[in-house]
UniProtKB/TrEMBL annotation:
Protein's name according to its UniProt entry: O-acetyl-ADP-ribose deacetylase
PANTHER family assigned to the protein according to its UniProt record, in alphabetical order: GANGLIOSIDE INDUCED DIFFERENTIATION ASSOCIATED PROTEIN 2-RELATED, MACRO DOMAIN-CONTAINING PROTEIN
A Pfam family annotated for this UniProt entry: Macro
UniProt-listed NCBIfam families: PRK00431.1-6 (NF001664)
Coiled coil start-end: none
Phylogenetic placement of the source organism: Bacteria, Bacillati, Cyanobacteriota, Cyanophyceae, Nostocales
Top-level division of the source organism's lineage: Bacteria
Ranges where the Macro domain occurs: 1-171
InterPro entries named among the record's database cross-references: Macro_dom, Macro_dom-like
Length: 171
């Protein structure tokens, strides 16, 4: 793992980073899981700004302010729903990470935290998603030195163990 990446276990809404990434839905109008937690912690102004964005296509990313969150920005990306792996899910998930990081670089964001996009309600197998997340981030950081720190935030021990295992395998 590069010096710029780390893995922690915890609640992404509590992190004092420049940006946190939301695993959103196409409407960007809130939902369950990490999306619900981010909207609750940010307050109603976040939903008001999201209403102005006209949604977000799967694999794309959009940015809002963080409002009541410790994070200054929220980057909303919509991961693929897992249909078994034959519908381009891997590539789409990779695009979520690349597009989120591209926005981060455009906004001079130096520290950014990602949840395990698509691995909850959307059913993407955790280890497979984890490999994509780590390899996409490492590739991006190689060519974008302005981003100083990427944190993978795991909600629970099993996700944390999975990230550490994959990082050991890939490095
Ligand atoms: N901090 C960090 N990670 C979290 C948190 C948190 N507070 N809460 C959950 N996770 P999910 P998806 C983890 O279901 O699969 C929503 O309803 C969770 O354990 O939040 O991309 C949206 O509106 C899992 O590992 O997102 C969409 O409709 C990961 O975050 C849909 O769910 C992602 O789980 C998106 O589904």
């Amino acid at each position: 793992m590069s010096q710029q990446t780390s893995v922690i276990q915890g609640d992404i809404t509590q992190l004092p980073v420049d940006a946190i990434v939301n695993a959103a839905k196409n409407s960007l109008l809130g939902g369950g899981g990490v999306d619900g937690a981010i909207h609750r912690a940010a307050g109603p102004e976040l939903l008001a700004e999201c209403r102005l964005l006209n949604g977000c296509a799967t694999g794309e990313a959009k940015i809002t302010k963080g409002y009541q969150l410790p994070a200054k920005w929220v980057i909303h990306t919509v991961g693929p729903v897992w249909y078994g792996g034959d519908r381009g899910e891997d590539e789409t998930l990779g695009r979520c990470y690349r597009n989120s990081l591209t926005l981060a670089a455009q906004y001079q964001i130096k520290t950014i935290a990602f949840p395990a996009i698509s691995t909850g309600v959307y059913g993407f197998p955790l280890e497979r998603a984890c490999k994509i997340a780590i390899s996409e981030v490492n590739k991006f950081l190689h060519s974008h030195k302005s981003i100083e720190q990427v944190i993978f935030v795991c909600f629970g021990q099993s996700a944390y163990d999975c990230y550490l295992k994959v990082i050991r395998e890939l490095t």
